[in-house]
């Protein structure tokens, strides 16, 4: 259902999302049976009963509105998540020890009258009303009842009392579970019955205990000692395993990357993120037409040619397809959060592949530190949650290396002498590894052709395992050709739509900076030394490069050389854009891992152990501190006015309108309007009106903006060409055409 029509007709004269007839537009990219149903109300609401609001004219019917949580789950859950539980948490925060008092959680003032008090969670209600002390007292009593029953159950000889006692224990456990989503202990019918029954049974237990006269022995659980021993053994084994360490790294990585995940898309490199996110947003809104990705920019800024259909041909939209899947799985989030989550999940996959690759060649210790650095370097934290294809490229390229390595390892060790069944299984594994390596390699090249630089370490793995011969050379060439075919096809397809292809040749050496002094400064001193390693990581990084282990081959050295070739060939792109170095992060973290282990293993050889450990600790802490110091501002929204103005445009205009949002060609402002249009003035305003522009929105009161405002405020209404829709000290929104010319 996600790939509604992967191969379809191209957009018409204008982009599909600009068509004034939405049904006709949707027919180009979907079939009638594929159109998703529109959710009118939550799943547990069967009839729309309007609200009756008292007014001066009497009761007025108002249509009910529902929160996003109600659509995600149901109305009952939404009431808990959106209202009742947050109120209980606020009551607890007012007085952590004693709470806010009984029956106060749903009141704005203590003197307010409420017909009923409910939190639908006894634990939160107890914390909110009585604080930690009241919570411990109440639930401590309940757990003490369970303890008394367990401790003295052997003393109960009467079968009726025994069965009732066991029943009470089971009832209490059930009520404790039920208390997680309803105020069960406050219900009078439950309270009277439960506490009365508890008193009777505890009194019966006390009588039975006194009749026994002898002390009651501790209850015995069969094989408890063996169970404890086995549990401890398994726990130690799990904790000491590689995958437990990897799990801790993954948990840390996802926690760090959730920082400011819900901020508007107006942070660092928002222009590039906005273009990528716009493709995803159009897929979500209008269905997936994979061969015709579109975004909001209709100008000629990117390609030098007018782009009235809003075509966007850069990388193959694999990242956007993944973002759509995440958006469908995590209902209720906006497209920006879904895009960031996609990058985060790709980053987690990268950590797994990196750990497995490094562990095979350098051991678990270096694998642990390499993965840890990948997870916690501030530069990589930020660029692992941006809406860009690069995090996805890192994931696919690491998968390419991993599965290719597994493939060549298998074919270099044939096992023909094994039984037939095992031999078939072995051949199936070879085929699967080959297929996965081809898929990941093709995906990497489709996302960014820069992944081709990693063919250097792949070629080394091939000849190291297979050997150099005419047959092996042909085999490697065939593999590369097969992987390149999808990329060649995509580039051929793109060539049919030059208006949607941004200029890119300048990325290589457009400003002639390659190997100039400025090139070395920006790449090595600024990006590597300052932004990625925070200055203090350089000694560890250099130690990792120089420290060549005995068991180590040339694989990682060639990986590093391939990345040097990448930054040298794509010189201007790497200097202009700091996110271009994302592809180099895996090998950088590998050298950091090697350097860290070198310092640890050198402890006691040159300096006392404690001094070596202390110096290493200071280096790592300072690396994180200074790295974060330089990265933290990338999260900032330096121009919140574009977000505010964009939201107003979205509220006050039709989604079929075209907008001029001048921002020096930067599409971040246009993206905030959720409308297609122009991020820059091409020619004059009248030319853009002829091309279909309906509104002009600006956050800078420059000469053109002031001229339009003046013309919209002419004393003679008959001479006014424009109309001001909204104006504040931060922005102005101007209607450029008459009301009858606006899209329906």
Overall outline: globular
Biggest beta-sheet profile: 5 strands, mixed
Which parts are unreliable, with pLDDT below 50 for 5 consecutive residues or more? 1-7, 13-38
Please report which band the strand proportion falls in: under 5%, 5-15%, 15-25%, 25-35%, 35-45% or over 45%. under 5%
CA-to-CA gap between the ends?
Answer: 29 Å
Continuous helix count: 28
Rg, nearest Å: 33 Å
> Strand sequence of the main sheet, in spatial order?
4-3-5-7-6
- Structural class from helices and strands? mainly alpha
Mean pLDDT, nearest integer?
88
Number of domains: 3
> How many strands appear in the DSSP assignment?
7
Give the helix level as a range of percent. Answer: 55-70%
Describe the structure.
The protein has 744 residues and is mostly helical. It folds into 3 domains: 76-212, no CATH class; 242-257 and 313-633, no CATH class; 640-741. It contains 28 helices and 7 strands. It has helices at 22-29, 68-72, 75-94, 122-152, 159-178, 188-212, 224-239, 242-257, 270-286, 318-329, 335-362, 364-376, 378-383, 390-411, 420-447, 455-466, 470-494, 506-509, 517-532, 538-546, 555-569, 571-576, 585-602, 609-631, 640-652, 668-673, 685-690, 703-712, and strands at residues 51-55, 58-62, 658-660, 676-678, 695-698, 723-727, 732-735. The strands form 2 sheets. The protein has a 5-stranded mixed β-sheet with strand order 4-3-5-7-6, with helices on both faces. A two-stranded antiparallel sheet has the order 1-2. Strand 3 (658-660), helix 26 (668-673) and strand 4 form a beta-alpha-beta unit. The two termini are 29 Å apart. The model is unreliable at 1-7 and 13-38 (pLDDT under 50).
